[in-house]
Each structure stands twice: as C-alpha cells, then as structure tokens.
Amino acid sequence: MQFGIFSVSDVTKDPVTGKTPSEAERLQALLRIGQKADEVGLDVFAVGEHHNPPFVSSSPTTLLAAVAALTKRIILSTSVTLMTTNDPVKLAEDYAMLQHIAKGRLDLMVGRGNTVPVYPWFGKDIRKGLPLALENYNLLHRLWREDVVDWEGGFRSALQGFTSTPRPLDDVPPFVWHGSIRTPEIAEQAAYYGNGFFANNLLAPNLHFKPLVDLYRQRFEHYGHGTAAQAIVGLGGHSFIAKNSQNAVRTFRPYFEGSPIYGHSYDLEDYMESTPMSVGSPQQVIDKTLTFQEGFGDYQRQLWVVDAFGLPIEQVLEQIELLGTEVVPVLRKEMDARRAPGVPDAPTHESLLRAKYGAAAPRQPKPRANRGDNLTGSSPYEDSDPDLIARFPTVA
Amino acid sequence: MSADSSPTAAAVSLVVVTAGVSEPSSTRMLADRLAGKTTALLAEQGRSAQVRVIELAPLALDIARATTAGFPGSTIEEAMKSLSEADALIVSTPVYKAGISGLLKSFVDLIDSDLLIGKPVMIAATAGTARHALVVDDHLRSLFAYFRALTLPTSVFAAPEDWGSPAFGDRIERAAQELAQVIRTGVGRAISDAAWSGYQHEFAGRATRAAQTTQDLDFDSTLMQLAAGGAGRNSSSTRLGPDAGS
Q: What percent of chain A has pLDDT above 90?
C-alpha cells in the first residue's frame, strides 16, 4: 500500500494572516513539500497541471524533476497530467525524460481537465474532450511500447516512422493511473490496459465514486488482468490533523470557511460527516481512512491534499510530519492486516522490471548512427531485429 | 393533503413540487386542488394514488448549499428520490418579477438531466395579476422541455380573481383529466422504456433506469471501443521493437 500527498498547486491568500504567497514562494514551497514527504517516509508526491491563475503548476515535469533531484525514495506522480490539451507525443517524451532523471521513481495520472477555456487556449474542442483523451492515451501507450510508430487518428497529425525518445527507462514504461470522477469510458480504458484507476474522493459525498471504481474492477477482471479485487485502485481525500480533534477543527475552520470551493457550501461539521474529508486527531484520520478500505475494497494508493487554501508552509510541513509519523505507520499495519490475500501492491518501476525481465538484464536501447530518418533500414536501435523492415507509406 | 390513499403496489405516486413561501400559500393551494382532482379521477378509474408534497421553502438553504457545494445533502437527495420514483409531477410556482420563482429554478437546476424523461408533468402558477398569465407557459413549459418530460397540454394559472371564478374549477378539472388519462395509458413510461438509450445519460445517476453497473452499459459504443484500445482510422504499426506486442 502506498500513501502520499497530492497538490492542486493553488496560490491562495491565507485567510488567517491575509497574506498571499507569490508564485515564486509557492513554487519553492512545493519543492520543500516534496522533500519533506520523502523525509518522513511517504511513498508518493503528486502535483496537478493547470494553465490558469491562481494555480502555479503549468509544467509538472519541470517541478518533479527538481523534486527528484532533492529526494531519495519517494515516487513522483501527477494529479493529473492533461490527456486532452497536451500532445501525446510530447507527453511521451517529457515523462520518459522525467522517468530517466528520477531513476524510475515516476508514474503519472492522466485525466481530462475541466477548466473550459483551457481547451480553446490550447486549440482543442471541449465537446470532443472524451474521445480526445481516449485516443491520445491509446497513442501514448504505443509510443512507450513500440520503437517506431506509424499512426493516424482523428485529432493530431498522423505519424510515420516516429520514435519517441528517450525510450522508457529499462524499456519499461511508467505506470499509468487514469483519473475520473464520472466517466465510465475512462474506467474502461484503465481496465482494458490493466492500468490503475484513481478516484479523487473530493468534493462529493462518501462513497460517491464507488460505482465507477466497481465498474473499473469488473472490467479489469473481464480483460484478464486479475480478479476484480486485485485491480489497482487509488483514492484521494483531504486531511487536516492536530494532536486532538478540537485543535484540528479550530485551526482548520478558517481555511475551510475561507476557501473558494468549500467556504460557501456546507458547514465544516456537515462536510466532515458526509464527505471523505478527514479533520481531527491522528486516530480520527486513521479511522476515517479505514472506512475507505471498507467501502471501496482493498486498494493500493491513498493520497491526501494537505497544502490547499492558503495554509502556510510551516503548517503544511507539520501536516506531512504528522501523516508520516502518526497516521501512515498505523494505517500501513492496519490495512495490511485487513487486506485479503492475493491483493497486489501498486506497480513500481522495480516490480515492472522484475515482471518483464525476471533475473535477466533489462534492455538498454542504444541508437544507431543518425540516418536522418527512422524509415530506412530497420529500427533506429542497435538491438532491433534486422529482418523487420519498416513499411513505407505508399503515395498514389 | 387531500385524500392520501393507502399505499398499495398499484398506487400511483403523485409528487407535488411547490415553491410558494407564505402560509397559507395560494401556490400550494392550487397544487393541492390539482392533486386532489387528479386523485379523484384516478379513483374513478379504480386506481389509488399517493401524494407526496415537496415544499421548497424549508429546503431553501439546502438548495443553496447543494448549488455552491456541487453536490446535494440528504434532504435534497430524498427529494430527488421522490422525483425519480414519481409516476407524475405537479409543479406549482408563484410568479415573481414577471418570472418563475428563483427558488424553483435553483431546485430544478439540481435535477439530473435524465431524471424526468417521459414523466408526465402538470405545470401551474399563481400571480398577483392576470397580466402574468403566460409565465407558466413561457417559463415552465420550456424548462421541462429541456428535461424531455411529458408536459401536459393544459397549464393552470391563477390570478386573484380566479379564486372566485367557476371557470377556474373547469380548468383544474380539464388539467386533472389530462393527467389522469396520461397516467392511465402509461404513455410516459412507454416513451421512456422504448427510447431510453436515445437520450444522454450519466453513469450512476439518480434516474430509476440509470446505468449503475457493467450490466447496464453498452460496451459496443464508439467511445467504449476507443477506450478499449480502439484503432484510429487505418491504424497500423511497423512494430519494430523487440517487445512490440506487449
């Protein structure tokens, strides 16, 4: 079981002090947050991708590369990488680069994005958001698994003889999670490929996402990747921890009530009761998180939002400390004890490497000398089968 | 409420949504008369009816919270359940500033788009002057057209003077007759049964027929095929890597 944090990367006025951090301060804070998560033994640090203020993470691979350099153990991920408005070819390149730089400590979560103007800003049509996301991922999947790709689809320009470089580390593509809050086709795509499925578990009532998670589980089994119970599920959540419940509620309340998304809705107490939001002592957060396992079944990854709504960096770091020292160690033990036999952990680079090569040495692609294209001769790499020759497109 | 029949398996479920706020409210009184007349006509057909009234005034804060939070709390969920299980609706609103009640519109904004498909809906409004008579047709009829509901031919509008007019009772009777006949023939349900897949739906929605599990979904749709690796046009691959098939 993996535990970690995910950040929306919002730059928000602290409702208590009235101060708004600069983008520069917030970006440095995010680096510090990633580092701290690693230091206290959390397993995952993920950031979102946004293209409008007040968010600051427009380029998650740049940020995560810096976090990779500052950390030792933690897996870096995204929440989410936009599968609609990005070019899947550039995504294949950027995330393969990051996977090398992070020495395999990378996976990513892909999603559609729901900020309407971002689509036209990036030249896309939001009404085609779903087929765009599905088709783009189908291409990304191939670009990481085939050295040379010929491809034609409904959205981006066609490809002939394209090689996405660098090839994934050890020729093992990063593991992919598909994030969705309502779309059965996304759950289906995750299941088809045997990828992970992530429900953010935010801004909705308890167990709201269960039908979609169950759909993914059943289709995962349908496609022969394992039983429904063995499907790779991730859940989010929002947490705020203090030594005791009263302090947690008292400290968190102004941030909740001052928040642009929570502040004008339900009372904090109602919200804590009827949604997955966990505010309280370490034991209360542990108990609440265990209800996720009861409700959704055994799952592989739990991420919490801990840094939103202008919470000052000192308090965020304290939240991470409390998660890492008082909450996660207990949850690890408890969830392991309750987990049904045969339920796997989330794939990591190491586990995927073992699954692909066993004890054998992994493939290390070495390019041939530059020929100016990828079409003449065989594959661009030294270890390609010389009998496999590229098929040229025919021009009538 | 008038004449709640004892619930039986065959009892017709009539749900009244009323946005009146005063006590007593003429908007509610109008809805009660429509429900009472419909119940009486159904009784003549040998059908019992159960009337459930959703008063929006006490839900005003919950409606506002659901709107801003993006999801409903338990009281609104309960109201949505009544709507989804109803055989027919009677919707009654006061006219404010030449339009329907904002409270009613805010409530209706929370309804799943496919919750009322083919559902018989009787529309009614009250106002301080007969000059607002077309609000009910202009606003409510188009609103329920969006939901693909089966809005009845007669809408009922009540200005102050109507409460002393015998013709008002005739209009109520006519509207109730329309509703009773539509319920008797079951045409709304037949439309929904026959054409359900032709409307847009959300997975795990609140409609009684909404897809909740894999059994309810069509995996042969174009999008589902695209999800399952589905080829772009003329997709082909040179598959030159040592591991191309994996």
A: 90
**What does the pLDDT look like over A341-388, one tens digit per residue?**
999 999 999 999 999 999 999 999 998 876 666 556 556 888 877 766
Can you tell me the distance from the alpha carbon of B104 to that of B115, in angstroms, rounded to the nearest whole number?
A: 16
In a domain, A394, yes or no: no
Total domains, chain B: 1
Residue A240 lies in a domain: yes
> How many Å lie between the alpha carbon of A47 and the closest alpha carbon of chain B?
23
The interface pTM score, or ipTM, of the predicted complex is 0.92
A192 close contact with B: CB closer than 8 A? yes
Interval A145-156: pLDDT, tens: 999 899 999 999
CB contact under 8 A, A152 and B235: yes
State the pLDDT at residue B227. 97
Strands B88-96 and B12-18: parallel
CB contact under 8 A, A265 and B65: yes
Residue span of the structural domain in which A232 resides:
2-357
Give how far B45 is from chain A: nearest CA, Å: 41
Residues of chain A with Cβ-Cβ distance to B113 below 8 Å are none
Judging contacts by C-beta atoms under 8 Å, the chain B residues touching residue A383 are: 242
Beta B49-55 vs B12-18: how paired, if at all? parallel
Instruction: With respect to residue B83, please indicate whether it lies within any of the assigned structural domains.
Output: yes
- Residues 6 or more apart from B142 whose CB is under 8 A from it? none
Q: How many CB atoms lie within 10 A of CB B131?
A: 11
